[in-house]
Amino acid sequence: MIKQLTGFQSTGNLHLGNLLGAMRPLVEAQATADSIAMIADLHALTVEHDPAAVRANTLEVATLLLAAGVDPRRTALIANSQIPEHTELHYLLECVTGFGEAARMIQFKEKSASGAVRLSLLTYPVLMAADILVHGAEHVPVGNDQGQHLELARTIALRFNARYGETFTVPAGIRPESAARVMDLSDPTRKMSKSAPSPAGRIGLLDPPDRIRKTISRAVTDTIGVVRHDPEKQPGVTNLLEILAACTDEKPTGLTSYGALKREVTDAVVALLAPIQARFTELADDPGFVHQTLAEGKARVRPAALATVRRTRAAIGLLD
Ligand code: ATP
Ligand code: MG
After folding, report:
1. How far apart, in whole angstroms, are the C-alpha atoms of residue 193 and residue 184?
2. Which end of the chain has fewer CB atoms within 10 angstroms, the N or the C?
3. Which of 18, 174, 178 is the best mutation target for the ligand 1 pocket, counting ligand atoms within 8 Å of the beta carbon and taking the most?
């Protein structure tokens, strides 16, 4: 079975884009892949954060992944901070990565444009490489936003193997067939994002139906007035059509007004999220289960992670 790793930063509330673009494909792949679902809580420390909020977010993301159908019997659910081999490999990989390689990452440039920048923000793509390489992941589903970071992980793996001997599996970035790219509802030229400053364009997976209705009713459309799939001229309407198609697994037909489209999208999103929210509420009552699941995920993946680190240490010149 192909080894696959999907990562989620615990930087904020998961949204419809995360569900349709990453969580659902992960759940579907469970039948055919040996999957790891990783919460990147270490990555949440690269920017100013509230410790209690990070802890709460990590648990919330874990709980939502389980509520959305991640089956801990098939998928190892882990947090990268709980497996010390991630940070150990991170350091070793820093020793084969150029300063310039990290500094030219687009996301670093964007996020470092304002304010005080932590060193960890610069080296975070190297930690991401460690997250992937430590488990020997062969496939890494990534959206466009992570393409450059995945390329760096591949470069680091190839370089290390060439310089110090065959040590790492070189990962391939994949785009799952069922993945949808969900755009921001208030600015359909940008993707829906946890870290967007305004929540107006985002549907949180835990948003109540009323809030979802409100967010969708305010979604930006256009003045053309015809419901048509046209990403260039009608990005807002196209985004709504794509959300509807992804939620219902059908091509939408027979919609004649934006009002009708928004009502259909609202109903479809509310129906998709209802069972996830119900399961979330059940699981949230039993945080012990989520902690236990993370501990089991760690126990499952740790032997392979330890072996990778041991191999890397030996190859690069460290004592046992
Ligand atoms: P942040 O703004 O903090 O980067 P994010 O919303 O981009 O948050 P991530 O944790 O970076 O979320 O990504 C988790 C997974 O969800 C990744 O696989 C990513 O490609 C996917 N994803 C994120 N946003 C979208 C979106 N709008 N549509 C589809 N998939 C998305
Ligand atoms: Mg992102």
Report:
1. 7
2. C
3. 18
